[in-house]
From TrEMBL:
UniProt GO MF annotations: inositol hexakisphosphate 3-phosphatase activity
Superkingdom to which the source organism belongs: Bacteria
Native organism: Alteromonas marina
Entry keywords, A to Z: Signal
Name assigned to this protein: Phytase
Length: 723
């Protein structure tokens, strides 16, 4: 072991260099230091006497060979550093045929597994165990083991027979080292793995269909010593020797942010462990962490926090320890459920265990202050019941846009009437280009015409002799709001779907933003808005030389920033989105009309409302609006007799299709939908949305494609009478 004084000196130097600078700029996130009295750690005065584990860290996994194989009570803790997950059976009649597997871990020699029948298996090498658990599916059971191989610098996953201890499957994934690794079993039975590598990157994986599926990667910075993951609350806990304990959302579609839940000056945290709420039969998980500079551990849930002193007494004299890892687990005995703690001592190299007293453990098994929040929880539940949430899967996705950051924004769909399968998706890369894709998502064309923000398509626009009955030539066009020039970029679409830039129409807007268009009697009318809320309506004309002009015909304003809009020419109604407020309507039959506010943003819809689109299901028309705040889409029924009346039917979410390796969708800006038959998977139409966080793996933003048939089924489910 390293000398403590040397390590302390190195930490002091590292803190001065790293903490004040690099920590604050790791990535743009909201860091919250939890100092509320409910969660502020105080010494409880409790002293736990430690027991030396002479055989080192050893765990027992349980399995059955009867029909009760799935009857385990999940009592494991997500692991930290060298620990593994444990399942302990409840002492009931269901467990008469319960068998045990002993898991012995030696980081330098290897991993030994022995079952109740005396069958053994030894994995030789130098390993850090991230996860060990008996998994079951279709009456089959196996040991799921995830480790980091120090010799090969790879993450390895094993599937081991519980009966023979033979390795049934071994998978590996190259890694750039491992500073911290942890894992937990997901709801679908797939291990979810977190690895913080030597570059300071946090990598999330899932084992799916016999392969490592890269979910998300992002910079987390230096100093991470261990991790623990709770998939029930979707939380990753990170022990940072420079800062303390961080909490990061494990949902790969969530915003990248971390919360500092613990910091104490001159207290380097190196080990962390979590017990999920389901393990505790509680509404709150339990997190524990340790520092080699304190002979004790911190315990915290949403209602209670404390520091518990740890002392070893092997020679009749109480002595302190220097813990660097911690493992929390639960157990059952005749007195009820309990909590055990396993820690190491860096000074002696030994491993110790202790159990919380029954009274101390009871604090974490009951709901405490959370029980008082039943009214709030019930209110949220009522909202959820009142408005359904239906999930759909994407059929395809486009290639990522070229530019980094928040770049992709708004899509449009050009339906090829001559060859539907050759239709095109037109998307904005708002940092410099208008990009087109085929229906498989492959890039077809990229035009670097400027910082285009929103785009829309118009069909059968008259060329030359405009505004007269003698016009004989018509063309399809795409129009995009261009923030480089505060203009409207006009492009012609030929029969193959290829775009040609015709020119720019200047606007008087101060900062052009969103737009939409409609075509009436061969004339394209464009609504453009800016960030102040101002709208301008232009009538476009195209002469025989394909030069474009625009005539300002109407102006009006909304109270705050708008963006998305869509026009229903059958009812002469434009729907306008005010991002933080709701939806407006405008009668487009006269340029003298003014907009009317019709639908405020209220739960379950969350701001911003940006993208808007129309879609028809069973001869009924619906307005789709992006509910950006909760990564979903609000579905409004448009009343046939009154297009200004909207009824919220519920929400649709686009979930990940792991089989196709297409992630779900989050933080959508723009969207578009069509009922046109585009052939193939899109005979009943197509829905295209911008994906603000393109993961699985982490890449630049892109657009996701959802089959119209899937969208129709989702809306039908929303429309079905509530039980």
């Amino acid at each position: 072991m390293n000398n403590r004084k040397t390590k302390g000196l190195l930490r002091a130097v590292a803190k001065a260099v790293v903490f004040t600078g690099a920590l604050a700029t790791l990535f743009n996130c909201a860091v919250q230091d939890k100092t509320d009295s409910k969660t502020q750690s105080k010494s409880s005065g409790t002293v736990l006497k430690l027991t030396h584990l002479k055989e080192g860290f050893k765990q027992t996994l349980y399995y059955q060979n009867n029909d009760q194989a799935n009857a385990y009570k999940d009592t494991h803790a997500s692991n930290t550093k060298t620990t593994a997950l444990t399942k302990t059976p409840m002492p009931t009649a269901s467990y008469k045929d319960t068998h045990a597997i002993d898991l012995q871990i030696n980081e330098h020699k290897g991993i030994s597994l022995t079952n109740s029948q005396g069958k053994t298996h030894f994995i030789k090498g130098s390993y850090v165990v991230a996860h060990a658990e008996v998994a079951s599916s279709a009456n089959k059971q196996w040991v799921s083991l995830v480790v980091f191989n120090n010799n090969t610098q790879q993450i390895e996953a094993y599937r081991i027979s519980v009966d023979t201890m033979a390795v049934q499957q071994q998978l590996s994934e190259p890694a750039k080292g491992s500073e911290a690794i942890c894992a937990a079993m997901g709801a679908q039975g797939h291990p979810h793995i977190i690895n913080v590598d030597a570059t300071g990157t946090l990598n999330q994986y899932e084992l799916h269909h016999d392969r490592f599926l890269s979910l998300r990667s992002f910079s987390i910075g230096p100093g991470i010593k261990s991790c623990s993951v709770d998939l029930v609350s979707q939380s990753i806990y990170l022990a940072d020797e420079f800062a303390g304990v961080w909490k990061v959302n494990a949902n790969i579609e969530s915003e990248l942010e971390k919360t500092l839940i613990f910091h104490e000056t001159d207290t380097p945290v190196e080990g962390v462990s979590v017990l999920p709420s389901t393990t505790l039969n509680s509404n709150s998980s339990l997190v524990g962490w340790v520092s080699p500079d304190k002979s004790g551990l911190w315990l915290q849930n949403q209602c209670h926090a404390e520091f518990v002193t740890l002392m070893r007494d092997e020679d009749g004299t109480a002595e302190s320890i220097e813990p660097e890892f911690i493992h929390l687990a639960t157990f059952e005995n005749k007195e009820g459920p309990g909590i055990t703690v396993v820690v190491d001592d860096d000074a002696s190299g030994r491993v110790y265990s202790a159990a919380l007293s029954a009274d101390s453990a009871a604090v974490y098994f009951n709901d405490g202050c959370l029980a008082k929040k039943g009214g709030v929880a019930q209110s949220d539940k009522d909202i959820h019941i009142q408005h359904k949430v239906v999930k759909v899967l994407p059929s395809a996705q486009t290639q990522p846009v070229q530019n980094f950051g928040d770049a992709a924004d708004d899509p449009a769909i050009w339906a090829n009437s001559q060859s539907p399968s050759e239709s095109r998706i037109i998307g904005t890369d708002k940092k410099g280009a208008l990009v087109t894709y085929d229906l498989s998502g492959q890039q077809f064309q990229s035009l670097p015409i400027g910082r285009v923000n929103n785009v829309d398509v118009g069909y059968n626009v008259a060329v030359a002799n405009v505004n007269t009955a003698s016009a004989e030539e018509f063309t399809d066009i795409a129009v995009a709001s261009n923030r480089t020039h505060n203009s409207l970029s006009v492009l012609e679409i030929d029969s193959s779907g290829k775009l040609r830039h015709l020119g720019e129409i200047k606007t008087t807007l101060s900062d052009i933003y969103g737009m939409c268009l409609f075509v009436n009697k061969g004339i394209a009318h464009v609504f453009a808005n800016d960030t102040s809320g101002r709208f301008e309506r232009y009538e476009l004309s195209i002469n025989q030389g394909k030069a474009v002009e625009g005539k300002l015909s109407q102006t009006f304003s909304l109270p705050s920033q708008p963006e998305g809009c869509v026009v229903d020419t059958h009812t002469n109604t434009a729907y306008l989105g005010e991002e933080a407020a709701g939806i407006w309507v405008l009668d487009i039959s006269s340029t003298d009309n003014t907009p009317t506010f019709i639908s405020a943003i209220t739960p379950p819809v969350e701001a911003d409302i940006e993208g808007l689109a129309l879609f028809t299901v069973d001869n009924k028309k619906y307005l789709i609006a992006s509910s950006q705040g909760n990564n979903s889409y609000a579905i409004y029924h448009i009343h046939e007799e009154s297009p200004k009346t909207l009824t919220l039917m519920g929400l649709v979410e686009i979930a990940a299709d792991r089989t196709k390796q297409i992630d779900g969708v989050s933080e959508t800006d723009g969207l578009e939908a069509t009922n046109a038959d585009l052939g193939g998977a899109f005979t009943e139409g197509l829905w295209v949305v911008q994906d603000g966080r393109n993961v699985m793996p982490s890449q630049n933003q892109n657009f996701k494609l959802v089959a119209g048939s899937a969208l129709k089924d989702a809306i039908r489910e929303l429309v079905e009478p509530q039980d």
